[in-house]
């Protein structure tokens, strides 16, 4: 990936880059765009041939005829090409045509039957496979889809994080829920993880922020939708950007950082701060354990005179106190709320064991 730099560590960080339009719209579109994308040295060019549209009546991709347009792009510039597959027939068509990779879209990853059918069709194919997260925030569906593809013997499987659907207001088109891809990577440390910054962002102004977070979380690369003339795009017009915009607003501005350094002064400093953090963590856990012992004590008292565990007034009071103190200590309301909820659930469990034993 060409958006590399050598800040701080002096070492180049290399990332995988997939660029291209949401949909393949014509051979001329792809050839014009391809020429402007050469500067980024993308690892793959993406373009949708069959588009899964949420509602009927919208542009659904040009279908089979677009395969030839993609091949012309590959032949002219030597790019590797990839597209979305949603059925065994799609796999067969692009595999026979010589595509280098395919991705499984968010609306397909949700259904194990579809994924299995695609996996069977991929058996023996030489293509790389990218698996997008399902539209709903379900880590196990995502993991399961990756496993289904790996099980048919595909060696090169990568995950693409494209955000999750939600109902309500957000500045993003699909909310990132970064903890899900982080957990995926914790469970499968060797898996290559990319961020599809376009489908998370939904608009050009958010692209850099999302790309920078992904890089700071050590993602292995990015996918972005680039179109020669975004406002005229037949799908996802709002989020696509021109090659010039991508260069000026993302590639030139993003900062790539290394995961590790051999700088011994830095490593010593970090080590000493981390050891202080570890001591604080131990104190927090030991205080929590003391707190649970007190909750158990209350449980035994409640049991004696048959009083229920959950006391709504007391819970309201605790939430109020936490929010008040949390605010004074510069802790976010969201964090304070999840913390007190976690403590409360654990307390209830401790009381319940004592009372119902
Ligand atoms: C796409 O990449 O154009 C697409 C439809 O993606 P997703 O499956 O993430 O919605
Ligand atoms: Mn799209």
Fill in the keyword field for this structure.
Chorismate Mutase Domain, subunit A; alpha/beta; 50% helix; elongated; 2 domains; TIM Barrel; eight-stranded parallel beta barrel; binds phosphoenolpyruvate; 357 residues; binds manganese (II) ion
Description:
- It is elongated, with a radius of gyration of 25 Å.
- It has two domains: 244 residues, Aldolase class I (TIM Barrel), CATH 3.20.20; 92 residues, Chorismate mutase (Chorismate Mutase Domain, subunit A).
- Helix 3 runs parallel beside helix 5, helix 5 runs parallel beside helix 6 and helix 12 runs antiparallel to helix 13.
- It has 357 residues and is of the alpha/beta class.
- An eight-stranded parallel barrel has the order 1-2-3-4-5-6-7-8, surrounded by five helices.
- The chain has 13 helices and eight strands.
- Helix 3 links the parallel strand 3 and strand 4.
- Phosphoenolpyruvate binds next to helix 4.
Rounded radius of gyration (Å): 25 Å
Ligand inventory reads: phosphoenolpyruvate, manganese (II) ion
Number of strands: 8
CATH topology of the largest domain: TIM Barrel
Largest sheet: 8 strands, parallel, barrel
Give the distance, in angstroms, between the N- and C-terminal Cα atoms.
60 Å
Poorly predicted segments: 1-10
CATH architecture of the largest domain: Alpha-Beta Barrel
Strand and helix layout:
Elements: E1 16-20, H1 27-37, E2 44-46, H2 65-77, E3 81-84, H3 88-97, E4 101-104, H4 106-109, H5 112-122, E5 128-132, H6 139-151, E6 157-161, H7 179-187, E7 192-196, H8 197-201, H9 204-216, E8 221-225, H10 243-251, H11 264-304, H12 312-328, H13 333-356
Parallel strand pairs: 1-2, 1-8, 2-3, 3-4, 4-5, 5-6, 6-7, 7-8
Helix pairs in contact: 1-2, 3-5, 5-6, 11-13, 12-13
The structure holds phosphoenolpyruvate and manganese (II) ion.
